[in-house]
Write the structure tokens for this entry.
Amino acid sequence: MNTITDKKKIDEMLNRGVMVDVLPSKEEFITKLMSGERLKIYIGADPTSDSLHLSHAKNYMFLEELRALGHEVTILFGDFTAQIGDPTGKNTTRPLLSEVEIKKNVKGWLAQIKPLMDFGDKKNPPKIAYNGKWLSKLTLEDVIKLAANFTVQQMIERDMFEKRWNANVPIYLHEFLYPLMQGYDSVALDTDVEMCGTDQTFNALAGRTLLKRLKDKEKFVLIVNLMANPKTGALMSKSQGTGVFLSSPPNEMYGAIMAQPDEMIEPLFINCTRITLSQKNNVMAMGPRDAKAKVALEIVKKFYGEKKAALAQEAFVNQFSKGELPEDIDLKILSADIVKVSDAVVAAGLTTSKSDARRLIEQRGVKLDGKVVTDDEILISDKEQLLQVGKRKFAKIKSK
């Protein structure tokens, strides 16, 4: 299959800022793209939660652009490595996931990625792979041979291991195996290019080492950004439950984007829309509210189509500009033993945990029939009531 080597298209793709570094160099990677050689490119992730967010979406959009140039791209699910637990960004060991949890999360991720990539392309569709296919077959002898390519000193140099070592926080032996396993993915896929976030650079370089030593093959590492608030540095995080989630329905997704701080408009424009970069200054000049509305519309359109995106925008304007309530508030029939507001918030699906519900009540972020809830002991009535969490989440509730 022929690849596209149009320099204008390649420059537009690379200049959006999603890719922040390339190893061994950006110049060598551009030369490779311009050569016409068809590359094997993959991005891997452990399905550790049930929902992706917009910082993940930009990676799959970027991968899709590489696929559209004619390259072979693979979405790798770390179904095996998710059971090990990568300590990236953590000062403690990550909890291990069960096989059932992993399968459920993979199913959700595929549904969320589907609008971002052309799985219907009959000539060059994105491929799906699972690292359990090869990692589960490694023998103890295989693992020992892989481990022989690295030193303990190299592992300790990894940022989060070094911090935990200095803080006298335990580091478990199985955590040292994680970079080996993720690194071996590159060998099993016989890849030319791996995409990874800045937090996964160590693991990707482990793969580069193994690929060179086991197959005498070089690998490019495309390091993509972690979409952060430029003012506070706060990241979207699936483990922390923060961000704009791809599993959100249209109205909720639109509202979540509009709720982002103003300084996030430009990162969202650059990373998560494909409005040409030449229009960026014009969009930003529209003012924060209008610029954010344009970005929100474009992003929701990507996932749900033009009609649903327009309806989501209309619903937002009606609700927040005109003070109207949403028209499609679900009625939740609660168990008779639910009497506290915090329990009702969880049972109605407006938050995922009772601790979050209590925190929202303490922050005066919960309303019952339009009144701010300050006492969690308020009894839920057997009459229909309107429960509101924050500005965008509503449910009608009624006790049995």
In short: The chain has a mean pLDDT of 88.
